[in-house]
Amino acid sequence: MIIGVMSDSHGDYQAIEKAVKKIGVVDLWLHAGDCCTDAEFLKTLTGIQTIAVAGNCDWPNPQAEVDEFIEADGLKLWLTHGHRYEVKLNTHLLVDSAKQQAVNIAIYGHTHILENRHYGDVLVLNPGSVARPYFGAPSFMKLRIEKQVVTVEVLFLP
Question: Which GO terms describe its molecular function (predicted)?
Fold first, then answer.
């Protein structure tokens, strides 16, 4: 299974279009919030199933849940924006929650900073921001999951 992952698009449809062109074929898109309504644009643009979560900028009327759990090739993925887990300070609460929920992969946004790190048995991913990175170029991720082996590719926009 190939999964495209983006976050923090903040209404920048041009950035979303560039990401779609760059990534190639995917089976599923995940959007980690801010703005979760951009996921509708992504779904319309690609015709691919898109799962989104609400971020801190999606209030007071979020059109998505704050957490989504997805099964992919026998692995449990948790998609959240991260603002409820104080990820701008550190990922301790996020990792602890992932372990309590028996999650294999925790995907979050909010910080606009890339992360691809294992904390014990939990792979923690942040695709950065496809539109407004705090450092470097806009970024997003492509995950390949085959036989419960995960390969993460970070992609950058010019």
Answer: hydrolase activity; metal ion binding
Across 90-119, average pLDDT: 97
The answer to whether the beta carbons of residues 70 and 30 sit under 8 Å apart is yes
What is the Cα gyration radius of the chain?
14
Q: How many domains does the chain have?
A: 1
Residue 49 to residue 51: CA distance in whole angstroms: 7
Structural domain containing residue 128: 2-156
Look-up: residue for tokens 């980690």? 32
Contact 74, 148 (CB under 8 A): yes
Residue 141: pLDDT band with limits 50, 70, 90: very high
Model pTM above 0.70: yes
* Spatial separation of the C-alpha atoms in residues 19 and 52, rounded to whole Å: 16
Structure tokens at 154: 């970070």
Torsion of CA 82, 126, 71, 78, to 10 degrees: -20
